[in-house]
Structures are given as structure tokens and as C-alpha cells.
Write a structure and sequence with these properties.
Layout: E1 2-3, E2 6-7, H1 12-20, H2 25-28, H3 31-38, H4 43-70, H5 74-92, H6 94-100, H7 113-126, H8 142-171, H9 184-190, H10 193-210, H11 215-237, E3 260-265, H12 276-286, H13 305-331, H14 341-365, E4 369-372, H15 373-381, H16 389-398, E5 404-409, H17 415-422, E6 431-433, E7 436-440, E8 443-449, H18 455-467, E9 475-481, H19 487-492, E10 495-499, H20 503-511, E11 515-518, H21 519-533, E12 544-548, H22 551-558
Parallel strand pairs: 3-5, 3-9, 5-6, 9-10, 10-12, 11-12
Antiparallel strand pairs: 1-2, 4-8, 7-8
Length: 563
């Protein structure tokens, strides 16, 4: 198993990091770390962080002291003592380290609310005061004491692993020969083998102390680990930034001048884990037409389940084969040296013909006849979505302090499936733009009401929406997609974000000169531009997409911390 760039064992520390690692993006994408990575975090903001960090170091040292008292085994006591000595040495050398990094010592500052919550959490955990856990007021038995020592290490471990991981992420973006980055020495310090070894020793000791714990007690450690991660997010999210920052995006829009955010996204394999066409076909296959009381068939007779399965399998196989042929016919041409919008549009015409022909075959096959609308809606409610997708969409829609609209643009055959998958009763209506299944008496006829079947039609719908909004004020558009059909909308939006790693999308994009940049490194570059050029205009150069692997990244970029 690899954690933050080094191999570790498969104990509880590794399992918990793997489970909650995705939440590291909410620290990575804070204004503090984006500005720091760009090298233009203000000295005052850094001084404030340093002053708060000293309080955390003291809290860690105190927690280690209490954990050492609780440990029963002499070797464990020694290991915890060494961890405490490491922190104490850092506190003693803190002033000289800050000067070595090239900064003046900050003035002593009072604790912020986030710092107080974090230090109180560490103190309470190390003292055995754990919410929902029955620990005797006086730790009488060695087992009770060892358990609290394990809990304490579980509360400390994520902070060190997170710190090592994030700084390595930042270090990877820096030129090792660039001596002008004012925070490079600080970043290198937390990427050092010495700090990595310190983080690993904590995790190793946590594994050791947890060996004899019950399942319920391991659940407590998991809860503490996750709570510590959340407190770390809050700690860095609360660091004051006095300069203009590109994150979170929602805060760059000024409501006073009519700032409005329009978010567009695809549905299949962007919001969902599976293609919706297969879901609709499966509904048709597993639901049987019910007999009327008089014994007659339902209004729309359907093929047998076996026939439906066979027909759908043949349609799917033909779609896949022709899609690959379409890609091959386009990518055998010479790769463009520069971005070629005209060449891309010409190529996408082939995909338009292909998609329309495929939809016509589905209609002719009759596989979509006789579906009940309620069955479709229930399937939508149970649809497996990408982690974090629905939460992000609903948080945008509930946010009263943000003028924003979300539009789903999809080739999906049924808008009701999308609405039932993404909406809930306590949010305003979702804007869905897709094809629809024709119905009579709440039952599908097998026909598709075709609205979006090509990249060009998606782009037309995108532009129609923008043309109908208020022309005054500050507007930003974000498009999130992951398929070939999204290419033109990704290019047209102010910010184009590619979800996942579709090899076809990347292959086709690169064929016509489109570049793909990881979102975090793109934001760091944008932050440098803000300071150097003095503008945060998001109208980027044509032919550049930002890539993400999760909706948490999008959430962190647009909204910031989830709390």
C-alpha cells in the first residue's frame, strides 16, 4: 500500500487513509494552499498560520504526554516518548526554522475558533473524553489505558499524513531549480524523509496499539480519524487571506454586481457510474407486462424477456463496434500542431451521424416499449451516482448566498430518470435538457422524442440557455463532462472540466490540439496569473481543459469546504 509517496503496511492506519484520502482535496484547494503553491501567499497570512500552528504543536506534545502515560507496554511508551520529543524539538527550533525559511517571526496571536476546536479535540481524546464512548472517569485497567492511547494516535495520525501528502502534491508542481519561490524551503521541509519517517512512525504505532481492540473500538478510531481530517480542513479553510484568490470560485463572484454562476454537466458517466441506456434497457427486460382483469394483454404488447435481452445485447455490441470504427477513422488523420476548432467540428459530424443512426435502431427494435414511468422514476432514485455528485448539486441549489443555476445536458433517452436521480423534494427544480421517451397513459411507446443527439445540438442548447439569461452583471460558466459529446460545450464554457479519464475523449482532443491540465495545477498557474497580471478573468485560452478524478475536487474548487 502506498500512502503519500511511501509504502506502508496494511494496518488500520493505511485503511483509514485510503478511506478518507479523497477529503484531502478540501485542504489542497483552500485559498491558503493554492496561494502558497503559487508562491504568492501574503507574508501576513503565512505569519498568521505559523502563530496558530505553534498552538497545534503544543497540543500534539500534550496529547503524546497523556498517551505515553496510558500505554502499558514499555516499547510503546518509548515510541510515544520519541514522538513527543520530535514535536518538542520542533517547538524549540521553531524560531530558527522560520528564519531559515526566510520569514520574520510572527507576533503572538490569539487562537482562532478553528484552532480552539482542534486543540480541544486532541486534549479531550487524549484524556479519554470521547463522544459516544464509555471510558471510565479513572482509567483503572491497563487495557482501558492502552485503548485511550490508541484513540489518541488515531486522532493525530491523519494530520501528519495529510500534511506530508499535500506538500508532496505541491512540490511536484515546482521547478526544483527555481530559487524564487518563497515557500519552497517550507514545502521541502515537510516533504523531507525526516518528516515522512515521523508520519510513518505514528501510523506504525497506531497499528500496533490497535491490534487487540474490538470491532466497536476500531470504529471509534475510525470516527476520531475522520473527525481529525474534518478539523484539519476547517483549520486551513479558516486561515485569513488578504489577497485575491481564485478559490473557491463561488466567492470570486460579486452579488453586488449581479454575479451569476451557470454550471452545466453531462449525466452518463459524469454523474453516474453506469450508462443510463443500459439501465433503461434493464428495466424493460426485468419488468413483465401485467395481464388485465379480463386476461387480455396490456395495451402495448412486448417481446419476451429473453428476446429483449438478446436484442439489446446485439444493439450494444453494434454500438460499441461502430463507435470504435468512428474513432479510428478520425484519429488516423494527421495530428494538429495547434488547436483546430474547424477540424474538430468536422470530425464530430461523423459522431453525430453515428449517434442518430444508433438511436434510430433502438426505436426500430422496440426494446423501449411498455416501460412504466413510475418504474423509471424508482430506478432513477436507486441509480448509483459518482461519489459526491448529488451532494454537490443539491448544495449549489440550496445555497441562498449564491446566484447559480445547474443545467444537465445529456444524450440520455429519459429526462425523468435524470430528475429522479439528482433531485430531492427540498430543493428547487433541476434544469434537465435531454431526450424523452414518448408515453401514452404513463407507458412508453418505444419512440424517443429526440432533442440532443450530437455535440452540435448540445452546444446549441448550451448557447440558447446563455442567450436567455440576464445580459447585465458578472457571469461565469462551468461545463463538466467526460465524453466525446461534451467536447464543444467544454470549449465554449469559461471553465471546461473533464471528469474521469475517458481515453477516447483524450485521444480525440489531443488529435485536434486540445491540452488536458490537472485542475489543481491549473489553479496554481491561474493564481500566479492573478498576481502577475492583476486579473482573474477566467476566459481561458481555447483548447485547454481541466481534469479531475472526483466530484469532491469540483466541490472544493467551486464551493470550498463542505462544512
Amino acid at each position: 500500500m502506498e500512502m503519500g509517496g511511501m509504502d506502508v503496511g496494511g494496518g488500520i492506519a493505511g485503511k483509514l487513509w485510503n478511506k478518507f484520502r479523497s477529503e484531502s482535496v478540501f485542504v489542497n484547494y483552500t485559498p491558503f494552499f493554492v496561494c502558497l503553491a503559487a508562491g504568492n501567499l501574503s507574508a501576513d497570512s503565512f505569519h498568521h498560520y505559523i502563530s496558530q500552528h505553534v498552538h497545534l504543536l503544543n497540543a500534539f506534545a500534550h496529547a503524546y504526554e497523556l498517551a505515553e502515560e496510558c500505554a502499558d507496554d514499555d516499547e510503546d511508551k518509548k515510541a510515544i516518548r520519541n514522538l513527543r520529543k520530535y514535536v518538542q524539538a520542533k517547538l524549540k527550533s521553531h524560531d530558527s526554522l522560520v528564519r531559515e525559511w526566510g520569514f520574520e517571526l510572527p507576533e503572538e496571536r490569539s487562537l482562532t475558533n478553528a484552532t480552539v476546536k482542534y486543540t480541544d479535540f486532541l486534549s479531550a481524546t487524549a484524556s479519554g473524553r470521547i463522544e459516544g464512548e464509555r471510558v471510565p472517569g479513572k482509567l483503572a485497567t491497563p487495557f482501558e489505558k492502552t485503548k485511550v492511547a490508541a484513540y489518541t494516535l488515531g486522532a493525530i495520525a491523519p494530520c501528519m499524513r495529510l500534511f506530508a501528502f499535500i506538500n508532496k502534491e505541491i512540490q511536484a508542481l515546482l521547478d526544483p531549480n527555481d530559487s524564487t519561490h518563497i515557500y519552497k524551503k517550507w514545502i521541502d521541509h515537510y516533504c523531507s524523509e525526516n518528516f515522512e519517517a515521523y508520519a510513518f512512525r505514528i501510523e506504525e504505532l497506531l497499528d500496533t496499539l490497535s491490534i487487540s481492540l474490538t470491532g466497536e473500538e476500531l470504529d471509534v478510531i475510525e470516527k476520531l480519524y475522520h473527525q481529525s481530517m474534518r478539523l484539519e480542513v476547517d483549520f486551513f479553510s479558516s486561515q485569513p487571506i488578504i489577497q485575491e484568490a481564485v478559490v473557491p470560485l463561488s466567492r470570486t463572484l460579486d452579488p453586488a454586481v449581479g454575479g451569476e454562476l451557470s454550471i452545466f454537466c453531462d449525466f452518463d458517466l459524469t454523474c453516474t457510474a453506469f450508462d443510463s441506456s443500459a439501465i433503461l434497457a434493464e428495466i424493460a427486460i426485468i419488468t413483465r407486462p401485467k395481464a388485465d382483469p379480463d386476461g387480455s394483454e396490456t395495451q402495448l404488447a412486448r417481446m419476451s424477456s429473453a428476446d429483449l435481452r438478446s436484442t439489446w445485447d446485439a444493439l450494444s455490441a453494434q454500438y460499441t463496434e461502430e463507435f470504435e470504427q468512428c474513432v479510428e477513422s478520425i484519429t488516423t488523420t494527421e495530428t494538429a500542431e495547434t488547436f483546430s476548432y474547424e477540424g474538430l467540428c468536422e470530425a464530430l459530424e461523423q459522431f453525430a451521424h453515428f449517434e442518430k443512426a444508433a438511436n434510430s435502431r433502438v426505436v426500430q427494435s422496440g426494446v423501449l416499449k411498455g416501460l412504466n414511468q413510475e418504474d423509471i422514476k424508482r430506478a432513477g432514485q436507486r441509480l448509483i451516482l459518482q461519489d459526491g455528485c448529488k451532494g454537490f448539486i443539491q448544495k449549489i441549489m440550496k445555497n441562498e448566498n449564491l446566484t447559480a443555476a445547474i443545467h444537465v445536458l445529456s444524450y440520455c433517452w429519459c429526462g425523468d430518470l435524470i430528475r429522479s436521480a439528482l433531485s430531492s423534494g427540498d430543493v428547487k427544480a433541476l434544469n434537465v435538457h435531454s431526450n424523452e421517451l414518448s408515453c401514452e397513459d404513463s407507458t412508453t411507446t418505444g419512440e424517443i422524442i429526440k432533442k440532443l443527439e450530437s455535440p452540435m445540438e448540445k452546444l446549441q442548447a448550451f448557447n440558447n440557455i446563455l442567450n436567455n439569461r440576464d445580459k447585465d452583471g458578472q457571469h461565469l460558466t462551468v461545463y463538466i463532462g467526460g465524453s466525446v459529446g461534451d467536447l464543444l460545450c467544454l470549449l465554449e464554457a469559461d471553465i471546461g472540466i473533464v471528469m474521469g479519464s475517458s481515453p477516447t475523449l483524450r485521444r480525440l482532443g489531443e488529435q485536434f490540439g486540445i491540452s488536458f491540465v490537472p485542475l489543481f495545477s491549473g489553479l496554481v498557474a491561474k493564481q500566479r496569473e492573478v498576481v502577475e497580471v492583476g486579473s482573474s478573468n477566467w476566459k481561458r485560452l481555447s483548447g485547454t481543459f481541466y481534469t479531475v478524478s472526483s466530484w469532491d475536487e469540483i466541490h472544493a474548487f467551486i464551493l470550498g469546504s463542505p462544512s
